[in-house]
Design a protein that fits this description.
Helices cover 54% and strands 13% of the residues. By secondary structure, the chain is α/β, with parallel strands linked by helices. The chain has a domain at 37-297: Spore Coat Polysaccharide Biosynthesis Protein SpsA, Chain A (Alpha-Beta Complex). An eight-stranded mixed beta sheet has the order 3-2-1-4-7-6-8-5, with helices on both faces. Helix 1 (9-21) runs antiparallel to helix 15 (338-347), helix 2 runs parallel beside helix 3 (78-85) and helix 2 (50-58) crosses helix 6 (160-171). The radius of gyration is 22 Å and the shape is globular. The chain crosses the membrane at residues 370-390, 397-419.
Length: 434
């Protein structure tokens, strides 16, 4: 998602002002026009996730015209699974294989430059579309406004129960018991029933799912939704399921090929969103459709947090004029994005402020109440926002409470993100990429 770390005072005030001052943007209405769409799924060792992604494309009210899966050097049976799934979907499936991993950006570039379709839909292999009208809704946004460079829906965590339900309703009936598209999934679902698997899940992944559910509510339902009201665009898309204007995407790739190559920061979707905003184009969040994505374990969480947070700061550095502009004008390229970026930058220093308070506490310069006060302010603000933007508020409150230990566990990573990006800048290191 990409914010440096927490949402604290300045971001809360800015987004709260947007909610009170400006009305929500009207939903796009489809005109019935259906431009050609090519979908691309970059995959690396995704035999147990990619069937969900592909079948979710097949159940769309407006499915893509064709799908390209880029097997980026997998060592499992990802390729065999893709080959086996062809017969159960209503579009052509092309499998491209890289002998060694080249990264998600390289895979998207390869397909975008070779394609002729007007729209390109990028879907992560560990993500599936929850709403059957997902692509139809995103196409409607592109039809509504010629300045739309990309459109995307809401993200929700994918749980074991969700995947098991999708398997029963959409996959079991499409493929035989020995089909390579079905076997890995059935084996995984059966393994979930063992006591050891359940224990590992509830200790290592379930808390992260609850934390991410709260994080997504705040990021999408409050921050991005407020930016849509303030600027008419989000700063960047939720990169696991995005419909791009293919020509504009290729223009960005070509524009930074000589200077950056495939290293478009540690999360390419954030860089692309900033690049589009820099050109006066828009990144549209569609609130009425959603996708579900796999979440990391507690052990894997810090790395993903670093990738997202650092990519935000790296993108803000590359697009410094956009990131520091606090006054707007009639030109869409002069929207005052700096108000949002600078607010997030200051609020992202909160973990460092917390660590400084701990140090001062150890030196007996401040009292313990200062530390508790800072923690209580941030956590309560975060929980209140998560509940306020949720439809099921009791469930949202429970999720916010369960996610508190995970959020505390994450706080030191906020300081690490800032320190490492600053160190990279001082050393002249720009080899940023997944």
């Amino acid at each position: 998602m990409g914010a440096p770390m927490p949402i604290l005072g300045l971001s809360t005030m800015l987004c709260g002002y947007a909610k009170l001052r400006y009305g929500a943007l009207p939903a796009a209405v489809s005109t019935g026009a259906q431009p050609d769409v090519v979908a691309v799924i970059p995959a690396l060792n995704e035999e147990r996730t990619i069937p969900y992604a592909i079948v979710s494309l097949a159940t769309q009210t407006v499915p893509p015209d064709r799908l390209v899966v880029v097997d980026d050097g997998s060592t499992d049976s990802t390729g065999d699974v893709v080959e086996g799934i062809r017969s159960g979907v209503p579009f052509d499936v092309e499998l491209r294989t890289h002998e060694t991993p080249r990264g998600k950006t390289a895979s998207i570039k390869e397909v975008a430059r070779a394609a002729t379709e007007e729209r390109l839909f990028v879907l992560d292999a560990d993500t599936y579309l929850e709403s059957e009208t997902y692509l139809e809704a995103l196409l409607g946004e592109h039809e509504r406004d010629d300045d739309v460079a990309c459109a995307f829906g809401r993200v929700r965590p994918s749980t074991r129960a969700d995947k098991a339900a999708v398997f029963d309703s959409e996959i079991r009936g499409r493929y035989g018991e020995d089909d390579p598209a079905r076997v890995p999934l059935e084996e995984e679902i059966e393994s979930w029933e063992t006591p050891g698997s359940k224990l590992r899940y509830y200790l290592g992944r379930w808390p992260v799912e609850r934390y991410r559910d709260t994080l997504y509510r705040v990021e999408q339902g409050f921050i991005k939704e407020a930016y849509m009201r303030l600027f008419g665009t989000a700063l960047f898309p939720a990169g696991c399921g995005v419909l791009y204007d293919r020509e504009r995407l290729v223009e960005v790739f070509d524009g930074y090929e000589a200077s950056l190559g495939d290293n478009l920061t540690n999360s390419e979707d954030i860089f692309l969103g900033f690049a589009f905003a820099h050109r006066g184009l828009t990144n549209v969040q569609v609130d009425r459709v959603s996708m579900r994505t796999a979440e990391p374990s507690l052990r894997e969480l810090p790395r993903q947090t670093y990738l997202w947070g650092s990519a935000y700061l790296q993108s803000a550095y590359y697009f410094r004029r956009l990131s520091t502009r606090v006054r707007g004008g009639d030109d869409p390229r002069r929207r005052p994005y700096g108000r949002a970026v600078l607010a997030q930058f200051v609020d992202g220093l909160y973990p460092s402020m917390l660590l400084l308070t701990v140090a001062l506490l150890a030196l007996q310069i401040v009292d313990l109440e200062w530390l508790f006060g800072l923690l209580a302010f941030e956590l309560s603000t975060y929980a209140v926002i998560a509940v306020a933007v949720a439809r099921e508020r009791k469930r949202a409150l429970l999720g916010a409470l369960v996610s508190v230990p995970v959020r505390l566990f994450q706080l030191p990573m906020g300081t690490y993100v800032y320190l490492r990006v600053v160190a990279d800048l001082l050393r002249g290191n720009r080899s940023w990429g997944k």
